[in-house]
Structures are given as C-alpha cells and as structure tokens.
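Teaching soon. Invent one.


***
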Amino acid sequence: MKSVFAIGITATVCCWLGSSGSTAATLTDGRRAAETTSLFSRAASTDAKLLVEELRRLVPSENSTVNAVLRIRQGRERRDVPLRVIVERSTNYWSTTYEVSAVGETPAERLVVEKSPSGRAAYRFAKAGKDGKFPDMVPLANDPMSQMLGGSDFAVGELGLDFINWPEQQLLAPEMRLGQPCLVLESRRPVAQGSAMIRSWIDRQTGGILVAEAYDTKGALLKEFNLSGSSFKKVNGRYELEEMTMSSHQRRSETKLRFELAAVKP
C-alpha cells in the first residue's frame, strides 16, 4: 500500500501525497520494504533530523504517467478538473509535472516540481493564454504553500513536501493511524500567515503520509489530508491508491484526487 503527494503528498500525488512524490512509482532508497518492518533506520525513528534526511532521499523507482481528476466541492459548487501527472527520473534529480486541463473560463495550468538530491524542491509554473498555448515556464513567485493547483485544495508546496525542509522539526510519540504504525513528525516555520505548522503521520513501512494536519500561527486547524475512507485497488498484483482527500477549513471546501489506474493484466 502506498500513498500517492508516493506523487509525494509528493508526491504519490506524497503529498502529503506520498513521500516519494510519485503516484505510480514504488518508493525506494536502496532497501526493499518487504525485507524490513520499517522503511526507516532505527536512528531515524527517534531523531527528527535523521528522519527528514531519509525522507528527502526517497525517490520514485521508475518513470510514470498517470491521468487523474480533481473533484472540487465548495459550498454548492461542484466541478471536475482533469489533470495528468508525469514523473521523470534523471541522474541528479527527479521531477513531477502536473498538467491541469482548462475547464470553462478557467485556463489550463502547468506545474513542474523538481527535486534535487538534497530533497529541496524548485517550482516552475505557467498558465495558458486564451489561445490555449503556454508561455515559457518561470519560477513560482508566490509562497508555494499558498498557491493552489487548479483551484483545488492541494497547495503547490504540499505537493513538493516543502515542510520537510522547514527549520524546526520534532518527532512526537509514535501512534497507530488507519491501522498502521506511524512516526509522527511536527514541522514548523516562522511565517506571518498561512500554514505555520504541519503534523504528519508517516507509515513506517512505506514512508507514505497517511494523515497530515496544517495549523496557523495561533494553532487553528487550516487543512487536513487523510486517507481514511480512501479507496485502494489491486492492480497487477499490488495495491494502488485510487482516491485521496484534502479538506480546507479556511475555504470550507474539499478536493478528492482520483487516479485512473492501469488496467489489470490478464
């Protein structure tokens, strides 16, 4: 079982989507999860600095392309936004491209999240013009945690797992969540507004984030990512995440990210 952002949280789309940042690729850091009860070293299970270092080293094991849809609900408004997620590996980095389709008067978007060996993310963004063509992509100018992908509840910085690079990291007592043993990581940053602290429950075996909560500077809950109630489908002998949910208490909205999984081989 793997979580997508394994897009990463990124990514899957680990991002809270999954710590690898890939929706379809298997997490790997040179060890096979099947050979151990924990993806992380014993030291990382007790030291926040070591844990985030091991999270940064997680990479997708293969290139992949996945079609998906953002199902956005805000009040009485409902809209579906198709997108495609492309994961590509290179020698010194890996990247995830999010291609968001145009819907009605809302133009198409393209976001590229590039990860270096340090685990830090660089963002390039472009919005299509009225003719449907994209200009040259430019570095993202806004705080990645405040810009939403395709008008959804998923922030760009959440897809890039920005919070594992925040200056203050603390490990809390381990907990069981969704029936899985989890490490609990609390990440903080100095900020005037928006997400100042994120608490994430990380599956020891897969490195995927099962639950995450974002709080503002006053400790008020802003957003919640939770795989509870999400659906998994067995595809070609392994379980793939089919749907995941992000809820925004600020916007009073909810986005379900649903993936089009590969057909089962005969």
Notes: Residues 48-57 form the longest helix (10 residues). The chain is about 5% helix and 40% strand.
